[in-house]
Amino acid sequence: MRPIDFFDRGVRLFGNAVCMRAADVVLSYAEMAELTHRIAGALQNRGIGPGAAVAVLSPNEPLAFAAVLGTMRSGAAWVPVNARGTVSEHAHLIQLTGCTMIIAHYSLAEHARKVADCVDGIAVVQFGGPDPSLPDRWLAPRDTLVAPLPEDPAATVALPGTGGTTGRPKGVVLTERNFETIVTTFNACLPYPADHRPVNLVAAPMTHGAGMMTFPLLPLGAEVVVSAPDAVSILENIERYRVTQLFVPPTLLYMLIDEQRQRRADVSSLRYLVYGGAPASVERLREAVSVFGPVVTQLYGLTEAPIVCAHLTPEDHALAFDSPQYEHRLFSAGRPTIATSVEIMDEAGKLLPAHTSGEIVIKGSVVMAGYHNNATATEEAMRFGWYHTNDIGYRDEEGFVYIIDRKRDMIISGGFNVFPSEVEQVIHAHPGVADCTVIGVPDPKWGEAVTAIIETKPGAAISPEEIQERCRRELGSVKTPKTVEFWTELPRSPVGKILKRDIRQQFQHGKQHREI
Question: How far apart are CA 459 and CA 453, in angstroms?
């Protein structure tokens, strides 16, 4: 089935029920369906359909999700674009994926036009504004019904971007087959009774895991509540709308724990409090179970194999806290899900036994078809017939998978991927910088805090705030270093390579150099 077919099942069974709500917009399944047909018809009238790609640039918003579903109904591929990114980042991704249109929220319309100025042949259409409706001038008529396209398991449904060793994204090809696996596996991991309509709260960006976790709930007639990404709003919405499920990165989970200790909101409706996207503190997980009950659960996935590769269940969490001999499982990503194989492999392609470290590799129908127009990168990632995650880990005798290090130096801060080389390039461009490196330092709030360590040129006077402002302007707030330190000399190997491992060890041992 296509993703839009799962949504249409929800429309047939729950047409008059609320599909998605936000502060100023409430759409039923029938109303959402009408919008998706009008959007799909408008795209097809412009010659946009199978083989094309459309970017949706918006904060979390029901009409943005209608644009995503409408794009899928047209047969075009959805390109998720993080609303917090920069013009240059977005232009690169849109050019990379071959987008022909950006559907932009009115608050980002000017930004979208700047992106379009950087790429040839891009149309920009706007939605929202003081009148929270999509402009009729580019939508197809209200009675439009777009004929369903034939199923094609290999058809491209989405083209999310993901970084590489250079920090520049590659386009990940996700197909109908991938989405069908995500929907069925997700619902096997987090089941609901047949007569129970889920209420899913979305606070993290819908371009992220939170968006992927929305699709599996649509055929169940779920009500999706769009919330501001702060603990107070989330807790208020859980209580008001009797939310049964939400996804949060660890950073937001910690904020929810702290706020709930004071607020004591009624969260008894929660069935699944899903976390993922970054390592989580075991002590904070213990607090989460204490505060929210036995509903805490983890899903592990990557852009190339989204959300349903491994699962640490609510029962796993409860058992680990009740029985000390199982507490180590909380350091794991869980066990492979029903449709996914997760193993540990050495450099020669040999699968390794339990408690032997190697690269985590994945096989199954959740794994991407490949990187868009990049056969070399696809071949490298899929060698020996397995997707290589570039994570180093091991598994135990019962199949729990443990991530112990990253093969590359990617930082996960607040659930977002940050590639050090991209930040380093911006810092290097400062005329007073002689050399620099960027690492992730364990942080109770962010999971990892982006940290810059800089050698200055003789006589140069640079403040941390100056570096942070430069990075914020060029890269956005997520990739801006939380801490900037100036060292007289960075540790280097005999061939002059900066030794990031040595720097990390100094931070771990509390022997940070102080600003000079």
Answer: 17
